[in-house]
Design brief:
The protein is of the alpha+beta class. It is built from 11 helices and 15 strands.
């Protein structure tokens, strides 16, 4: 165990080029100073306030920089998120663990404490336990996404990956198949076991297969073809609307039919083939 201040003093004089050592961190590490020209690989043990540090010194005069602690790492993560994107403490914990090489279990409490402080300081807003959002200033005050929007985002996206899609009557309405607008939104998601808060009007469905960015549009169309059989469809040419939507989304018809055959019931496959082939299938098998 060594005092880092003496080591930094030697490095400023160019007397030493590298160390592999352990040192006790100060009571408030955010007031410490490190140097740009020292490359640190830190393995931390927060409970005993010890760090194992490996670095290389390039024999140039060190340029002071502020210590980057949990708060700065969290702020960096928050800055990258979109205004309507829910900010999950679980995702922040994973992010910091990846950046620092620390164990998630060791930093979870520190993340929660820092998030609470950031909320108190006005940087973020708490939507529910473990879920926050950005506090965006506009000309009319602060913009705060509603709780339902944030909840739905959790069901639809995980970082950059698509994990869900809207389905049910609301999609049929958006395509133009029905004029009725449902009160509840329906979402098929990989997180289909997630509990829906009582004050949120969202129904969660289990998808036919695991959802990703490559297949979610296909699944959405196949769900629409399935649901339109029992929905109050009032469009004059519903099959034509489906074909137009498939074309607009640039979906491959063969892949759509193949997915229907592998993951949906026979009646959905038959209807999909009929719609995509413009009634040929139904006439041939009628």
């Amino acid at each position: 165990t060594e005092d880092i201040s003496g080591i930094l003093g030697n490095l400023e004089k160019g007397e030493d080029k590298g160390y592999d050592f352990k040192f006790l961190i100060p009571a408030n590490p955010h007031n410490g100073t490190y140097y740009d020209d020292i490359r640190l690989n830190i393995i931390a043990k927060p409970l005993v306030k010890k760090y194992t540090v490996k670095y290389n010194y390039n024999n140039k005069k060190g340029i002071p920089m502020n210590y980057i602690g949990y708060k700065n790492l969290i702020l960096n993560y928050i800055e990258k998120q979109e205004a309507n994107q829910p900010i999950l403490t679980s995702k922040i914990t994973q992010y910091i663990a990846k950046k620092t090489g620390l164990n998630e279990a060791d930093i979870k409490k520190a993340v929660n404490v820092n998030m609470a402080r950031l909320e108190k300081d006005g940087h973020i807003i708490r939507a529910e336990k473990g879920v926050y959002c950005k506090k965006i200033k506009t000309a009319f005050g602060y913009y705060i996404p509603d709780k339902e929007t944030l909840f739905c985002k959790q069901l639809l996206y995980s970082e950059d990956e698509v994990i869900g899609y809207e389905t049910g009557l609301s999609v049929l309405n958006r395509i133009g198949l029905i004029s009725q607008m449902p009160k509840r939104k329906c979402i098929a998601t990989n997180l289909y076991t997630k509990r829906v808060p009582s004050d949120i009007q969202v129904e969660i469905r289990r998808p036919s297969i695991y959802i990703n960015r490559a297949n979610f549009r296909y699944l959405q169309i196949l769900d629409a073809i399935r649901d339109m059989q029992k929905a109050p469809v009032d469009a004059p040419k519903p099959e034509e609307l489906i074909r137009e939507t498939v074309k607009k989304l640039e979906l491959n018809k063969d892949n759509l039919i193949l997915m229907a055959r592998k993951h949906y019931k026979p009646e959905v496959l038959a209807k999909t083939v009929d719609i995509m082939l413009g009634g040929i299938y139904e006439a041939a098998h009628g």
